[in-house]
Each structure stands twice: as C-alpha cells, then as structure tokens.
C-alpha cells in the first residue's frame, strides 16, 4: 500500500497512487461499516483529538465515529467552552493539547492555512477537516469514492461543479483531486462567485448552467457560503435559484445517467430542488455521507501506520 504522507493537509500534497490507496482501503471500511459489529483495532491504544473551530455536522460526526470504530480514544474539544474564549491562540491551544500526547489531531478552522501552521508545531499526525477557502481533503476523497462506486471509474468523466466556487474549499479540493485523476472539469456559476486565477486549474468555466451541464456525468452542487461573503455577490436568492439552481428541468441538460452530488449542508430551494436531492435514482448525497465515515477511517488508519513506522524507526535509532 502506497501512502507516504505524515499529515493530511490537502489533496495538493497527494500523488494519484496515494489517492487510490485511500480509496481502496476505504472500500474495506465500507464493508465493515455495514456489518452489525463495526469495530477494528487499527487505532488501538491511540488518542484522537477533534478540534472544530467552525460548525460541522457531517465531518465532526464522521471523524468521531471513524476513530471510535477503529478503537482510538476519541476526545472532542468543545471550542465554545475552551480557553480559546479567554483569548488563547490556536497555536497555544494546539501546543497544550500536544503536551497530552495525542496521536491524531483533526482540525477545522475558518482561516485558510491555519491547519498547515498548526501541523508544523505539533508532533502528531494532523488531519485538515476544512480550513477557510483553502482545502477540505477528506470531502474530496469521499466524493471521489462516491463517484468511483457510482460510475465504475474515476477517470475520463465530465464533472460539473456548480455554484459558489469562490468561497468553497470543497470545490478547490475536488478540482485538484479530479484533475490529478484526469477528468474533464467544468465550473459553473456567476462571474462574481468564480475565484480569480481559475484558469490555472485547467478547467472550463461557464456562467450558464444549460451550457455547462451538457453531457456531464457528474453534477456537483455547492451551497452559497454566506458566512464567507462580505458583500452582494448575487442579486437575490430567488434569482440565483432561477439561473443556477438544479431542478429536474435543468438536470435534463446533463447526461441521462448523470449523478447529483452535494457536500451538505444543503439549502433546498436556493441551489437545489428538494425533489432532485431526494431522488434515489439520481442523487448520491446520502452515499456521500456514508462514504465519509469509511474514507476518514482509511485516512486515519494510513496516517497511524506511518506514525507507528516513524516512531519505531526512532526507537531503533535510540537503541543503536
Ligand atoms: N460537507 C461538510 O463539511 O459538512 P459539515 O460542515 O456538516 O461538516
């Protein structure tokens, strides 16, 4: 198995064979998670701390379940009740927790780059659970697994990523991952919600849904990230839905076998019609949630193996 990373900070740092290693191991955890007894000892004796400085349902719950199913001692730091509220910095908080000898630190933070900075200060493995607009690597990996299972491959697909691209770490991580796996990527959204320098990623850019969706195999809808907006990016939600919302009529422009994805949380009636989101013949949104647990189990298992190997090598070095 080929996975060399010390931390999981972004897709940017992963090679295609490392991505495949995560997905292949995650397949085994999908099977485990469907059994009555869902336990493994892959993280036995290890301590996992989850630090979420931003709200989360899916990522926080699935990292917690993943750690528990792998046999780790899992601690969720409650940021609202922590000394962060007394002015303690992210780095001081991380150094304090690091002194308690965790093995895995899972961090979500509103600032891009905060998780990378933190990883340079601690001596455990760090997993990025989403940092600002930068990256959300486990989301892209769970999306990749969902696509691979639904379409039977992860190459040569036309993937349309639609909506608020500018503020989305999900879009960025997916763009990088799907590009590394040689897919054709189209970004669709109003020019106000396209990041500058978008051309660097080698994707096609559309501001008309009907054009961009033509023949797409995968339609990935994104939420308007209002918490990261500081101005009028859209005229109104009603107009936005009319031009960029996905309903049955709009989906008809994509391939007849196209799957519909959304990382969640969804805003029904803003970027996606509720009936499409719930249509089990087209929507794989609940599969994405299921794959999230398996992918996070695989990522933590692989990082733990590397950590054990590194510590073993150090211990041997000390003896010699
Ligand atoms: N997709 C995602 O990151 O969802 P949460 O914010 O609920 O974790």
TrEMBL record:
<feature type="binding site">
    <location>
        <position position="139"/>
    </location>
    <ligand>
        <name>carbamoyl phosphate</name>
    </ligand>
</feature>
<feature type="domain" description="Aspartate/ornithine carbamoyltransferase Asp/Orn-binding">
    <location>
        <begin position="157"/>
        <end position="302"/>
    </location>
</feature>
<feature type="binding site">
    <location>
        <position position="108"/>
    </location>
    <ligand>
        <name>carbamoyl phosphate</name>
    </ligand>
</feature>
<feature type="binding site">
    <location>
        <position position="136"/>
    </location>
    <ligand>
        <name>carbamoyl phosphate</name>
    </ligand>
</feature>
<feature type="binding site">
    <location>
        <position position="58"/>
    </location>
    <ligand>
        <name>carbamoyl phosphate</name>
    </ligand>
</feature>
<keyword id="KW-0665">Pyrimidine biosynthesis</keyword>
<dbReference type="InterPro" id="IPR036901">
    <property type="entry name" value="Asp/Orn_carbamoylTrfase_sf"/>
</dbReference>
<feature type="domain" description="Aspartate/ornithine carbamoyltransferase carbamoyl-P binding">
    <location>
        <begin position="6"/>
        <end position="148"/>
    </location>
</feature>
<dbReference type="InterPro" id="IPR002082">
    <property type="entry name" value="Asp_carbamoyltransf"/>
</dbReference>
<dbReference type="GO" id="GO:0006520">
    <property type="term" value="P:amino acid metabolic process"/>
</dbReference>
<comment type="subunit">
    <text>Heterododecamer (2C3:3R2) of six catalytic PyrB chains organized as two trimers (C3), and six regulatory PyrI chains organized as three dimers (R2).</text>
</comment>
<feature type="binding site">
    <location>
        <position position="169"/>
    </location>
    <ligand>
        <name>L-aspartate</name>
    </ligand>
</feature>
<feature type="binding site">
    <location>
        <position position="59"/>
    </location>
    <ligand>
        <name>carbamoyl phosphate</name>
    </ligand>
</feature>
<protein>
    <recommendedName>
        <fullName>Aspartate carbamoyltransferase</fullName>
        <ecNumber>2.1.3.2</ecNumber>
    </recommendedName>
</protein>
<feature type="binding site">
    <location>
        <position position="86"/>
    </location>
    <ligand>
        <name>L-aspartate</name>
    </ligand>
</feature>
<feature type="binding site">
    <location>
        <position position="264"/>
    </location>
    <ligand>
        <name>carbamoyl phosphate</name>
    </ligand>
</feature>
<dbReference type="GO" id="GO:0044205">
    <property type="term" value="P:'de novo' UMP biosynthetic process"/>
</dbReference>
<comment type="pathway">
    <text>Pyrimidine metabolism; UMP biosynthesis via de novo pathway; (S)-dihydroorotate from bicarbonate: step 2/3.</text>
</comment>
<feature type="binding site">
    <location>
        <position position="223"/>
    </location>
    <ligand>
        <name>L-aspartate</name>
    </ligand>
</feature>
<feature type="binding site">
    <location>
        <position position="265"/>
    </location>
    <ligand>
        <name>carbamoyl phosphate</name>
    </ligand>
</feature>
<dbReference type="InterPro" id="IPR006132">
    <property type="entry name" value="Asp/Orn_carbamoyltranf_P-bd"/>
</dbReference>
<dbReference type="GO" id="GO:0006207">
    <property type="term" value="P:'de novo' pyrimidine nucleobase biosynthetic process"/>
</dbReference>
<dbReference type="GO" id="GO:0016597">
    <property type="term" value="F:amino acid binding"/>
</dbReference>
<dbReference type="InterPro" id="IPR006131">
    <property type="entry name" value="Asp_carbamoyltransf_Asp/Orn-bd"/>
</dbReference>
<dbReference type="InterPro" id="IPR006130">
    <property type="entry name" value="Asp/Orn_carbamoylTrfase"/>
</dbReference>
<dbReference type="Pfam" id="PF00185">
    <property type="entry name" value="OTCace"/>
</dbReference>
<dbReference type="GO" id="GO:0005829">
    <property type="term" value="C:cytosol"/>
</dbReference>
<dbReference type="Pfam" id="PF02729">
    <property type="entry name" value="OTCace_N"/>
</dbReference>
<comment type="function">
    <text>Reversibly catalyzes the transfer of the carbamoyl group from carbamoyl phosphate (CP) to the N(epsilon) atom of ornithine (ORN) to produce L-citrulline.</text>
</comment>
<dbReference type="GO" id="GO:0004070">
    <property type="term" value="F:aspartate carbamoyltransferase activity"/>
</dbReference>
<keyword id="KW-0808">Transferase</keyword>
<comment type="function">
    <text>Catalyzes the condensation of carbamoyl phosphate and aspartate to form carbamoyl aspartate and inorganic phosphate, the committed step in the de novo pyrimidine nucleotide biosynthesis pathway.</text>
</comment>
<comment type="similarity">
    <text>Belongs to the aspartate/ornithine carbamoyltransferase superfamily. ATCase family.</text>
</comment>
């Amino acid at each position: 198995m080929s996975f060399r990373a010390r931390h999981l900070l972004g897709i940017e740092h992963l090679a295609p064979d490392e991505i495949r290693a995560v997905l292949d191991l995650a397949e085994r955890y999908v099977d485990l998670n469907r059994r009555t007894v869902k336990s493994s000892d892959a993280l036995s004796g290890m301590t996992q701390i989850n630090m979420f400085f931003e709200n989360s349902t899916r990522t926080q719950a699935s990292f917690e379940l993943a750690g528990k199913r792998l046999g780790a001692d899992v601690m969720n730091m409650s940021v609202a009740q922590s000394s962060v509220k007394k002015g303690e910095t992210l780095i001081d908080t991380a150094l304090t927790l690091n002194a308690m000898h965790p093995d895995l630190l899972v961090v979500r933070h509103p600032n891009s780059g905060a998780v990378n900075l933190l990883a340079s200060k601690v001596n455990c493995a760090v997993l990025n659970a989403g940092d600002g607009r930068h990256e959300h690597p486990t989301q892209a990996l769970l999306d990749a697994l969902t696509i691979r299972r639904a379409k039977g491959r992860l190459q040569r697909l036309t993937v349309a990523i639609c909506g608020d691209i500018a503020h989305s770490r999900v879009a960025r991580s997916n763009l990088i991952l799907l590009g590394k796996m040689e897919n054709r990527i189209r970004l669709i959204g109003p020019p106000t919600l396209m990041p500058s320098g978008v051309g660097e990623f080698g994707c096609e850019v559309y501001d008309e849904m009907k054009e961009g969706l033509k023949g797409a195999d995968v339609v990935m809808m994104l939420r308007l990230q209002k918490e990261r907006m500081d101005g009028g990016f859209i005229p109104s939600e009603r107009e936005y839905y009319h031009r960029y919302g996905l309903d049955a009529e709009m989906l008809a422009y994509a391939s007849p076998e196209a799957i519909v994805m959304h990382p969640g949380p969804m805003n029904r009636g803003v970027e996606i019609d509720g009936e499409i989101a719930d249509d089990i013949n087209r929507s794989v949104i609940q599969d994405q949630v299921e794959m999230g647990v398996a992918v996070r189990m695989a990522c933590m298992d692989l990082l733990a193996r590397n950590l054990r190997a590194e510590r073993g090598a150090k211990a041997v070095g000390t003896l010699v």
